[in-house]
Design a protein that fits this description.
Blueprint (H helix, E strand, L loop, with lengths): L11 H9 L12 H28 L3 H4 L14 H8 L11 H31 L5 H12 L3 H15 L5 H26 L2 H9 L4 H9 L4 H16 L3 H6 L7 H9 L8 H11 L1 H22 L3
C-alpha cells in the first residue's frame, strides 16, 4: 500500500492572499470615543424622559405624611395603592366625586368609533388617490394636505356653530365627528404614500382579471397593509385619548373625557392638595396609549418606514 504523503496544490492567487495578510476593515473597538458619545447622549435623553415618570410612580405609591418630608426621589418606605383607588373611584372632578372611571368610559366611547371611522375613510381615500386617478384627484389631495396644517384653534368657532345647527353640540356624537374630520388629512397622506409604495403590477394584474374597486381593496390591498393600519391606529388612539381642547369645548360635563376630568382633579383648589392622587390619576390617564404602543410598537416602526416617507 502506497503511504506517500498527500500533496496539496495551492493556487498562486491563494498564496498571494496569504502573504498579504488579513484584508478588509479592522473591527472597531467596543469602547471608543464615538461609542461613548453616542451612548452617553442616548442615556442622558432616556434619563431626561424617565426621571419624571419615576417621580410620578414613586409619589403615587406614597402616603401624604411621607410626601410632606420632601424626598421626591426616594422610593416609598411603605407602599400604598390607596391613591390609585381614590383617583379611579373617589376623587372629585367637579360636582361629581366618582373619580376618573366615568371619564375613562367616556373616552372609550369617543375613541373607538372615531378611530374606526377615520381610518376606514382615510384608507379608502388613500387607496383611491394612489391607484385610481380620477378627475380632480390632485386638487382633492392638495386640499387634504392643506387641511393637515390648519391650526385646530382656527376651526373651533365655526365647528361649534355647525354642530349646534346639526343638534349634536355637547354630545359624544359631535366630538366623534370632530375627531374623525381632523384625523382625515394626515391619515389619508399616510395611506396614499403606503399604497403608492406597493408593487403596481399587483393592481394591474387584478384589473386584467376583472377585479373592481372594492375587490382590489379588500382582497389585495388590505392584507398587505397591516403595518400602516397599525401606524394609523396608534396615531389616532394617542391623539384622541390625549386630547383636552376638543373635549372641553365640544362636550358637556357629563360627557367629559378622561383628560378633562384629570385637569379638574389636578387644578382643584378645595381641600388638601393630594399629590399622590394627582400622580396616580395622571398615570391612569396615560396608560391606554402606552399599552397600545408597547403591544404594537414593532409594527408601528415598520409602517412608518414603509409608508410615511415614500410617495
Amino acid at each position: 500500500m502506497d503511504k506517500s504523503p498527500i500533496l496539496t496544490v495551492v493556487q498562486p492567487a491563494a498564496v498571494d492572499r496569504l502573504r498579504a495578510g488579513p484584508q478588509g476593515k479592522r473591527p472597531r473597538p467596543a469602547i471608543s470615543g464615538r461609542n461613548v458619545m453616542l451612548y452617553g447622549a442616548l442615556g442622558l435623553a432616556a434619563l431626561y424622559y424617565l426621571l419624571p415618570l419615576y417621580v410620578m410612580v414613586v409619589t403615587s405609591l406614597k402616603g401624604m405624611p411621607e410626601i410632606r418630608l420632601g424626598n421626591i426621589f426616594s422610593p416609598p418606605m411603605e407602599i400604598t395603592f390607596e391613591p390609585w383607588v381614590k383617583a379611579w373611584a373617589e376623587a372629585c372632578t367637579g360636582l361629581n366625586c366618582d373619580g376618573l372611571s366615568r371619564g375613562f368610559w367616556n373616552s372609550v366611547k369617543i375613541m373607538v368609533p372615531s378611530v374606526i371611522l377615520s381610518i376606514a375613510i382615510a384608507s379608502v381615500n388613500g387607496y383611491a388617490l394612489a391607484n385610481w386617478r380620477f378627475k380632480g384627484a390632485d386638487l382633492f389631495f392638495t386640499i387634504l394636505i392643506v387641511g393637515a396644517f390648519i391650526p385646530y384653534q382656527v376651526m373651533i368657532y365655526p365647528l361649534v356653530i355647525v354642530l349646534r345647527e346639526l343638534g349634536i353640540y355637547g354630545t359624544l356624537s359631535g366630538l366623534i365627528l370632530v375627531h374623525s374630520i381632523f384625523g382625515m388629512p394626515i391619515l389619508t397622506l399616510l395611506f396614499r404614500n403606503y399604497f403608492v409604495s406597493l408593487p403596481e403590477e399587483l393592481f394591474k394584474a387584478a384589473r386584467i382579471d376583472g377585479a373592481g374597486f372594492w375587490q382590489i381593496y379588500f382582497r389585495i390591498m388590505l392584507p398587505m397593509s397591516l403595518p400602516i393600519f397599525v401606524v394609523a391606529m396608534i396615531l389616532q388612539v394617542t391623539g384622541i385619548w390625549n386630547d383636552f381642547l376638543f373635549g372641553v369645548v365640544f362636550t358637556r360635563p357629563e360627557n367629559y373625557p378622561m383628560t378633562v376630568q384629570l385637569n379638574n382633579i389636578v387644578n382643584s383648589v378645595q381641600g388638601v392638595k393630594e399629590y399622590n392622587v394627582n400622580m396616580a390619576a395622571t398615570l391612569l390617564s396615560g396608560a391606554v396609549p402606552l399599552i397600545v404602543y408597547f403591544v404594537s410598537g414593532r409594527l408601528f416602526v415598520r409602517g412608518i418606514a414603509a409608508g410615511a416617507v415614500k410617495g
